[in-house]
Design brief:
Layout (H helix, E strand, L loop, with lengths): L5 E7 L6 E7 L6 E4 L5 E3 L10 E2 L6 E2 L9 H10 L15 H18 L3 H18 L2 H22 L6 H13 L3 H13 L6 H32 L1
Antiparallel strand pairs: 1-2, 3-4, 5-6
Helix pairs in contact: 2-3, 3-4, 4-5, 5-6, 5-7, 6-7
Bound molecules: zinc ion (ZN).
Zinc ion binds next to loops.
């Protein structure tokens, strides 16, 4: 018998406390074809990222395993008014297409924002939404969500600082700046990873060196392009 890529697990809703089913991807099907410089994974067959968010079909509360436990009375009131009241009872338990995945992430983002989840959780959701748009080839929306993710990752850095081993975060701050064309900022972050003696994460130091070089190339290309435009005018 052939194994199906999806299997179901039972989750309990943090808001209405009802149990419901949601799908996960079997690990034998999680085959990544390649990983992008900001850790976006392209998968060969089914994308396990599409199944990260659990959505309660009874009230619309959407969450990931990174969400904190417990809901404040303030959250309950706001969730009731913004999500539950308008909830149409959509069922996300089975197979998800791209649109379903996007809707599940946007719902989780809304819940995380009204719940005032940690910056790291919100940043991760925004970054994943940007990746979904990359998957679809929608560069305008991808940039919009990369910008929002970058703003949130900066807050993470401000809260956590360099005390914890944050080489990966600092690298990401450089790479998202590079992708958004903010080259001087990108260089500044890559420089810090490469030159900070406290950082011992060799993979991130190497990646920062590579992307530092990529940024210099981007700057060069930009200069040449603007040069061409000027000549075009004359
Ligand atoms: Zn619920």
């Amino acid at each position: 018998m052939m194994l199906e890529p999806l299997y179901q697990v039972t989750e309990k809703c943090g808001y209405c406390e009802t149990e419901f089913r949601t799908s996960k991807v079997r690990s034998s099907f999680k085959k990544s074809a390649y990983t992008d410089t900001d850790f976006f994974c392209q998968f060969k067959t089914i994308n396990p990222d599409h199944y990260v968010v659990a959505v309660c079909p009874f009230c619309g509360y959407a969450f990931t395993e990174n969400f904190s436990q417990g809901l404040s009375p303030e959250f309950r009131t706001r969730f009731e008014l913004t999500v539950r009241k308008n909830w149409q009872g959509v069922d996300y338990s089975g197979e998800r297409n791209w649109e379903d995945a996007l809707k599940s992430y946007k719902l989780a983002l809304l819940c995380a924002q009204i719940k005032q989840e940690k910056e790291r959780v919100v940043a991760g959701l925004l970054h994943h939404i940007a990746w979904l748009y990359r998957e679809k080839g929608d560069t305008e929306q991808e940039r919009r969500f990369l910008t929002l993710a970058l703003e949130e990752y900066i807050k993470v850095y401000e809260v956590e600082g360099i005390s914890v081993n944050n080489a990966r975060l600092m690298y990401l701050l450089g790479e998202l700046n590079r992708r958004l064309g903010q080259y001087n900022e990108a260089i500044r972050w890559f420089d810090r990873v490469v030159n900070d003696k406290k950082i011992i994460d060799s993979a991130m130091i190497r990646a920062s060196r590579d992307q530092w070089a990529a940024t210099r190339q981007d700057m060069q290309d930009q200069l040449e392009n603007s040069g061409h435009k000027e000549t075009g005018h004359v």
